[in-house]
Amino acid sequence: MPAAVLAFLVLTLALVACGGDESSTPTATATVSSTPAPSSTVTATGTASATATGTPFATSTPSPTSTATSGAPAGYATSCAAGYPWGQTVTGPFVCIQFPNSGITPTGSVPVSGYAGGSFENNVVVALRDQNNATLLQQSLTYTAPDVGKPGTWQTTVALPPGQPSGSPGRIIVYFTSPRDGQVVALDSIELRFP
Questions:
Q1: Which of its termini does the chain have fewer beta carbons within 10 Å around, N or C?
Q2: Are strands 25-36 and 42-53 parallel, antiparallel or unpaired?
Q3: What is the pTM of this model?
Q4: Domains assigned to the chain
Q5: H or E element: which one contains 99?
């Protein structure tokens, strides 16, 4: 076998022995010596060594705060919107009421807040309905999101109108509709008792 072919094979085997790690740069050295024998047969001996040194081409160190929660409001990860990572485009439209809890008996007015995502132009509607599902008041507002298509926050105050029977049930509803056909796309509600 010619010495040049043997040197090539030894070098190839040495590189394979390095483990094929693409993240480091191997350095290979091959030494081949041949001594002609009296029968004019070439006997070759070879040694090869390879040392891999270097650093990976790209390194990444995870930050303690992922970009999905970076800048999220306090408590968002455990809120009613926890299934919609903050800072990421929502996978489906949603709206939820974070505060207050259902079953309250407020007096005068009720601060209401929550989260929404996937609404056309970030619009939501907050409505107060009585026990017969009649709308007592309704207001439109825009939720605040870090970017289009991402979850955002909303808040308002619902003033309770006078004249409702004390202890009668009511409901605060938050929803948004499709601009195409007016159908409700997402909705959440809580129950309350009028004082």
A1: N
A2: antiparallel
A3: 0.63
A4: 3-53 (no CATH), 77-193 (2.60.40.650)
A5: strand 94-99
